[in-house]
Amino acid sequence: VSASTGAGLAVSSCATFVARRVVVDGAGATAGIDVNNSASAQVLQSRAQNTAAAVPGVYVRGTSTGVLLDNVVATGSGAAASGAAGIKLDATGATVRHSQSYANDGDGGHGIHVANGGDTASIFDNLLWNNGVGGATGASGLYVEFTSGPKTVTAIASNTLWANAGREGGIRFATSAGVAVTVSDFRRNIIGGERDANDAGVIWPPAL
Question: Of 88, 187, 79, which Cα lies nearest the Cα of 131?
Fold first, then answer.
């Protein structure tokens, strides 16, 4: 699929949606693969690349269960001041496993962005590298954002985060004041090569 103005693949209001082996090369004002307001969404063995600077490569939102497995995302937005995550999930239950997200540039160009919709999240065995180039503050390999809670992250494990640029850390937890976040399994993550002198491997709250 090649799109210049809208999403490469956009789906809304499905009970169950499964995208398997979808390739999107180029997208305009919305995400390369955009799944909205569905009870269950799975994006499997797919690729999104060369999307516009301010939109995610894969965006699952307003969804009860979002599962992304074995995907490759590289938005290739260039050294833009404002970017978007390669993979963004705003789902009650969010799972990203065995995926690669790289070359998502600019401020906000995180490898994976788990937004506030998730009550639980599992981020396991992903490769997140060379994200956030070109912005003033850059981006994280993995950005976990919660503005209401309590929330539970069941696993952030066995991920490799390398050469992500900016001051957001290899892994950044961003929470509002008073929001309780529990991480049940945090182990075997490889974090290094951050490209800003003020960067850290892991940034844990305080507040946003």
Answer: 79
* Separation of alpha carbons 114 and 108, rounded Å: 12
129, containing H or E segment: strand 127-129
Instruction: For residue 28, give the nearest of 58, 51, 12 by alpha carbon.
Output: 51
- What pLDDT sits at residue 117? 56
Tokens 């797919």 label which residue? 46
Per-residue CA distances from 191 to 70, 126, 201 (Å) = 20, 12, 6
Q: Which amino acid is at 114?
A: V
| Residue 164: predicted pLDDT | 82
Going from the C-alpha of 33 to that of each of 27, 104, 183, the distances in angstroms are 9, 15, 28
From 8, 17, 19, 24, select the one nearest 38 (Cα to Cα).
17
Question: What is the DSSP code string of 138-190?
Answer: B--SEEEEESSS-EEEEEEES-EEES--BSS-SEEEEE-TT--EEES-EES-E
pLDDT-derived band at 203, boundaries 50, 70, 90:
confident
